[in-house]
Amino acid sequence: MQLKFKVHSKIQKPVAEVFDAVHNPSKLSQYFTTGGASGPLDAGATVIWQFADYPGEVPVTVKEMLPNKLIAFEWGEDDKQRVEITFEALDDHSTLVSISEGDWPETQKGLYRSYSNCHGWTQMSCCLKAFVEYGINLRKGFY
Fold first, then answer.
1. Whole-number Å distance between alpha carbons of 84 and 62
2. Is residue 117 part of a domain?
3. CA distances, 112 to each of 37, 55, 58, 76, 96 (Å)
4. Which residues, 6 or more positions from 83, have their beta carbon under 8 angstroms from its beta carbon?
5. Residue 140 lies in a domain
6. Residue 107 falls within a domain, yes or no?
7. Would you call 59 exposed, middle or buried from its count of C-beta atoms within 10 A (0-12, 13-18, 19+)?
8. Which of 72, 62, 67, 84 is nearest to 16 (CA)?
9. What CATH code is carried by the domain that includes residue 111?
10. 142: in domain
11. What is the DSSP string of the chain?
12. I need a labelling partner for 45 at 20 to 30 A (CA). Which of 23, 39, 66, 98 fits?
C-alpha cells in the first residue's frame, strides 16, 4: 500500500493566470499562505511559508518549476514529502490543477498525515479557485 493522493480542481481562468496565483508569493499569500511567502516558487529556491492559523515557519524546497505546467517541491519534518502541482490548459479560459503528495511511511502516523494533508490540499485548491475566479479569500476565518 502506498500512502499518497491526488486532488483536482477545474478553474475557469487561463493557465498563465492560475499558475501565477500559485507561483507569485504576493498572490499566494492572499488566499493560502496567510502569514506570507518569502519568495516565488522557482527551481532551486527554498522559500518560507507562514500561516496565520498555524504557528511556525514551513520551509519549502522547490525541486522543479516549468512555467504554466509544474511546480514540484519537498516539505515536511523528518520525512520530507514531495508535492507536485500540475497545470493543464483545457482551453483558452480554463485550467485543470492537480495536486499530488506522498509517499508517507506506512504507519498510523503516516496515514494520519496523508489524510490531513489531503484535506489541506483540497482546501487550498478550493481557495485557489475562489481567489482566481472571484477575488475571494476563503481561508480567512476558515480555521
1. 10
2. yes
3. 26, 19, 19, 14, 27
4. 72, 73, 74, 75, 99, 100, 101, 121
5. no
6. yes
7. middle
8. 67
9. 3.30.530.20
10. no
11. --EEEEEEEEESS-HHHHHHHHH-HHHHTTTT-TTEESS---TT-EEEEEETTEEEEEEEEEEEEETTTEEEEEE-SSS-EEEEEEEEEEETTEEEEEEEEEEE-SSHHHHHHHHHHHHHHHHHHHHHHHHHHH---SSTTT-
12. 98
**In this structure, which amino acid lies at residue 23?**
H
State how far the Cα of 20 lies from the Cα of 32, in Å rounded to an integer: 13
Per-residue pLDDT of the chain in tens (143 residues, 90 and over written 9): 788 999 999 999 999 999 999 999 999 999 999 999 999 999 999 999 998 888 889 999 999 999 999 999 999 767 789 999 999 999 999 999 999 998 888 999 999 999 999 999 999 999 999 999 999 999 887 77
Flag whether the pTM goes above 0.85.
Answer: yes
By the 8 A CB rule, do 143 and 24 touch?
no
> Under DSSP, is residue 112 helix (H, G, I), strand (E, B) or coil?
helix
Q: H or E element: which one contains 56?
A: strand 54-66
Residue range of the domain that includes 20: 3-134
